[in-house]
Structures are given as C-alpha cells and as structure tokens.
Amino acid sequence: MKKRKSSIIFILTIMTGMISCSPKIVGTWTINKFENGTPSEQGYSLSNIGTITFHKNGSGEKNINYSVLGTSHVDMFPFKWTAADAAITIAGDSTEFSKTWIIISNKRNYQQWKSTSGNKVQALELRKN
Predict the structure, then answer these.
(1) Per-residue pLDDT reduced to its tens digit, 62-115
(2) DSSP letter (8 states) at residue 38
(3) Where are the beta strands (DSSP E) in 1-129?
(4) CB–CB of 34/94 below 8 Å?
(5) How far apart are CA 94 and CA 84, in angstroms?
C-alpha cells in the first residue's frame, strides 16, 4: 500500500512538472515586427506582417504576407515546432521562418526571438492574440 501511494505521488509530481514547463507559445500570435539584416549593411524592418499559430501537438500554421523592394513574400505553410529552454525550432518548409530561433524574451503575451545564419541576423517580435 505504501509503495503504491509513493508511486502515485511520484507520477503526480512528474505530471505537475510537465504541465508547469509547457511552452507559453501555444496559441495565435501577431508578428508585430520582423527585422532582417547584416551587421555591415542596412537591413529592413517590417511591422504587422501576419500571424503564426502554435498548437499543443507540435504543429502550426503561418499566415504571413509582406513585400520588400517590390518582391512579395507569402508564407501560408503548415509547420512542426519544438521548444527547448531558450530556443524554438520551426521546421517543414524552406521559408525565412523555418529555422531555430533563440528566445530573447518569453512572456505570456509577448515573445522576442533572434536567429543568425552566416552574417545574416533576423529578429521577430510577437504579441499574443
């Protein structure tokens, strides 16, 4: 009886830990700002370019539409995501957003991410809908 009670307490402790560590990212977020550039050149900064939705099961959808220097970019592809301590990885297509992002700020209704590739630096600011 005592062994069974200990097992139940252990399982409940593990489940509580898993719930409390669940990502704050689940839900739909507006991309308030998207910055893209290099340290040696002037880049660009765009506002309100669309939304990105993260589901609990590790899937999601993007609804992103923006134009830079006369070139239109539309990203409405589904994706898979995983989150670690200070990073989130978006996988599934070959768009600007499919990569591992470093989480700079992780609040309930606000996220700030950065990513680097070579000397290219990108930043996202997200607000929860």
Answers:
(1) 999 999 989 999 999 999 999 998 999 999 887 889 999 999 999 999 999 999
(2) E
(3) 27-38, 41-47, 50-54, 59-68, 71-75, 78-83, 87-91, 100-106, 110-117, 120-128
(4) no
(5) 21
